[in-house]
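in:
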């Protein structure tokens, strides 16, 4: 494949990846799902048509008219959802890109296309939070470096009309850089890419971050809404996120010695509790209290469980103050010592944060057993206990008819009796086989309460319906109960030894009050009435990525979200500056110790009381050391002087490896330098030749005839330097004659000017 074709295919591939980055995982938009395929198809079509036969391209006047028409598309999409202006702008940029595909392309058009692709990448990096954003961004960066290298060659070939071998026949397309893609070029490209990534990475790591930048980036509309964790939750609403594969949080589980621990069962990540129920709507009993309660001061636990488990949790950006952790919580040491950002609600023992913008890192220590009381939870007064037993009168009798036969014969008093009755009702919903798990919800009788409809008519639902049904059945037989919304389990990553908890892991379960104390914390029994096997089958259908690939993408996304997007000033100080400061301090202390020892040693070594004491073994050692140091200093100074003189004089002789084409180019530059015409660092050889030709054209009729010589010399230079091609003897003779003639004409021009 010729160089120009490789360049064009690479360019279209890079732009397709940029559009994929703009559209993200395309979970919420049909446009985002189809646009990358449209861009890829348009690239193939443009490559086969207008890029082969430019006259088939769109007239620029028509393209300009169509570009103005795309503003109507932008306006229509914006009016359909005014909160998505940035995404609408990204789609508009993609439309302009499609128009550019079908124009005969100049270097300026390619620059414009590159900028359109870069704009899509920037928009997609900000608006998308999918699993694959980091992977696609890296792929785009690699392609961008490769394409820019090819773009330089293509631009020079266009600008100076390099056509290839003289033997190419009429109408036969030739390659000006035939033989370019050898192993040397590949290795050079890899080195450039590696250097770019290393320098970019160092710049990113070392550049001081603005305090609070990460929080600001995650603020506003970019924060994801977590359905099911509001003050009011409508029954069935949690089903909206059960089919979403997006990550909510990443959890590192360790023991107290910071050794990774994989939980034996699916852990329950407790979120909010719901107490008040009315016609399919659950409300929190402590509505508003989460924002006004007093923050509990951190106190190291004096009586930790025998099986504590540490959770280091990195929460994705969302708009909810709710924090998730295994219950019961024993400590939250990392945040408790450093800031009052986390509080525990004494009404129900839930955790919350005061700041809901950006990613959020926190650490919690819990009892892995999970059966103990939450010690910070306050005793239950009479009014709260009444709320935990409240059931609407319209459905109470029917619920008692269902629950009565199930708990009949079981003791109604005491901890063991209450536990037995609660477990019986749990088993009725989970294990009897009369109820099934499904995410496809339908209402059998809209006139009936949704929970009662589930129990008597439909017999199918997701976890919310099972938890709501069990809670109301427990209350109907006199057992205080509440619904808990949180997450259950997660995807374990063997590479990182962490657990990725996704929206599809959202879950509802029940806490039943089995023991009260007027002073101590109440004891709750955790119940999960949802059929486990059917739920697992439903989870497996959400997200079809293979397990090994999912582990890799989760790792990439973890690094992307928390160490690139979330690389704020606090994390930079913790990861980079604090260890560097500690290392510098240790090195400084070490050097201070060494310097102190050296000073004392040299003080003793050079302490000669009289001239006679110098004539000794110690005097000989001192003399030898001083002489050796002076010799080394002299040698080093001479080496530096030689290097400086060599640099000042410049190269004296041509290296044996220089080819004739390069020597001709050097002779041309030396000849032009006599007229103070030199190539600037920002100027290519081709641009320099063009400037030299214009200069020669202004020297008079004699030199004007030789204005084309610089272009011919540079063309030969490009063939040798970048095309790995040898010049024929005839070409060498011709170029040498042209240079001789150029030198002669320039001398004549000087003499004419002097006369």
């Amino acid at each position: 494949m010729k160089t120009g074709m490789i360049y064009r295919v690479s360019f279209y591939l890079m732009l397709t990846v940029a559009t994929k980055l703009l559209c993200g995982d395309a979970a919420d938009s049909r446009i985002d799902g189809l646009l990358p395929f449209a861009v890829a198809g348009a690239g193939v079509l443009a490559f086969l048509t207008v890029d082969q036969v430019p006259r088939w391209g769109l007239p620029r006047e028509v393209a300009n008219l169509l570009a103005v028409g795309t503003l109507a598309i932008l306006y229509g999409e914006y009016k359909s959802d005014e909160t998505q202006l940035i995404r609408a702008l990204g789609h508009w940029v993609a439309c302009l890109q499609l128009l550019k595909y079908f124009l005969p392309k100049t270097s300026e058009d390619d620059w414009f296309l590159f900028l359109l692709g870069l704009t899509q990448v920037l928009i997609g990096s900000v608006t998308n939070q999918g699993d694959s954003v980091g992977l696609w961004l890296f792929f785009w960066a690699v392609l961008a470096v490769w394409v820019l290298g090819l773009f330089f060659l293509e631009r020079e070939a266009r600008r100076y009309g390099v056509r290839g071998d003289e033997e190419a026949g009429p109408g036969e397309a030739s390659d000006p850089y035939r033989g370019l893609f050898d192993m040397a070029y590949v290795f050079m490209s890899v080195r450039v890419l590696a250097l770019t990534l290393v320098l970019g990475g160092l710049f990113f790591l070392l550049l001081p971050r603005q305090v609070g930048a990460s929080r600001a980036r995650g603020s506003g509309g970019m924060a994801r809404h977590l359905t099911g964790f509001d003050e009011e939750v409508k029954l069935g609403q949690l089903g909206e996120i059960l089919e979403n594969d997006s990550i909510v949080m990443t959890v590192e589980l360790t023991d107290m010695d910071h050794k990774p621990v994989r939980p034996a069962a699916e852990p329950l990540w407790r979120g909010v509790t719901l107490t008040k129920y009315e016609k399919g709507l659950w409300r929190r009993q402590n509505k508003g209290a989460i924002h006004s309660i007093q923050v509990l001061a951190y106190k190291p636990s004096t009586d930790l469980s025998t099986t504590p488990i540490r959770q280091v949790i990195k929460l994705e950006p969302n708009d909810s103050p709710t924090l998730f952790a295994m219950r019961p919580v024993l400590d939250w040491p990392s945040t408790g010592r450093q800031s009052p950002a986390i509080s525990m609600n004494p009404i129900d023992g839930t955790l919350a944060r005061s700041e809901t913008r950006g990613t959020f890192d926190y650490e919690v220590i819990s009892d892995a057993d999970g059966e103990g009381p939450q010690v910070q939870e306050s005793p239950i007064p009479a009014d709260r206990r009444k709320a935990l037993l409240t059931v609407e009168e319209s459905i109470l009798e029917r619920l008692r008819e269902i629950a009565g036969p199930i708990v009949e014969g079981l003791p109604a008093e005491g901890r063991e009796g209450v536990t037995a009755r609660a477990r019986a009702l749990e088993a009725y919903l989970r294990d009897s086989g009369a109820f099934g798990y499904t995410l496809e919800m339908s209402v059998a009788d809209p006139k009936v309460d949704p929970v009662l409809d589930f129990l008597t008519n439909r017999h199918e639902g997701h976890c919310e319906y099972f938890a709501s049904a069990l809670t109301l059945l427990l209350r109907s037989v006199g057992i205080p109960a509440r619904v808990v919304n949180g997450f259950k389990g997660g995807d374990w990553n063997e590479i990182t030894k962490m657990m990725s908890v996704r929206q599809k892991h959202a879950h509802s379960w029940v806490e039943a009050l089995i023991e009260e104390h007027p002073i101590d914390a109440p004891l709750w029994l955790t119940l999960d009435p949802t059929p486990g096997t059917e739920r697992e089958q439903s989870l497996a259908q959400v997200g079809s990525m293979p397990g090994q690939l999912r582990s890799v993408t989760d790792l990439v996304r973890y690094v992307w979200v928390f160490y690139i997007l979330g690389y704020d000033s606090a994390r930079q100080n913790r990861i980079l500056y604090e260890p560097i400061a500690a290392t510098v301090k240790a090195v400084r202390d070490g050097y201070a110790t060494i310097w102190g020892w050296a000073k004392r040693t040299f003080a003793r070594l050079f302490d000669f009381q009289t001239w006679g004491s110098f004539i000794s073994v110690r005097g000989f050692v001192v003399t030898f050391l001083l002489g050796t140091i002076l010799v080394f200093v002299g040698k080093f100074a001479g080496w530096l002087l030689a290097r400086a003189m060599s640099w000042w004089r410049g190269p004296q002789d041509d290296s044996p490896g220089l080819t004739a084409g390069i020597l001709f180019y050097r002779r041309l530059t030396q000849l032009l330098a006599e007229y103070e015409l030199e190539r600037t660092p920002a100027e290519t050889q081709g641009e320099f030749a063009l400037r030299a030709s214009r200069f020669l054209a202004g020297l008079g009729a004699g030199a004007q005839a030789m204005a084309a010589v610089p272009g011919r010399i540079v063309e030969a230079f490009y063939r040798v330097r970048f095309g790995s091609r040898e010049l024929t003897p005839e070409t060498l003779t011709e170029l040498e004659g042209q240079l001789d003639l150029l030198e002669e004409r320039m001398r004549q021009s000087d003499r004419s000017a002097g006369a």
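note: Residues 689 and 711 are 5 Å apart (CA to CA).
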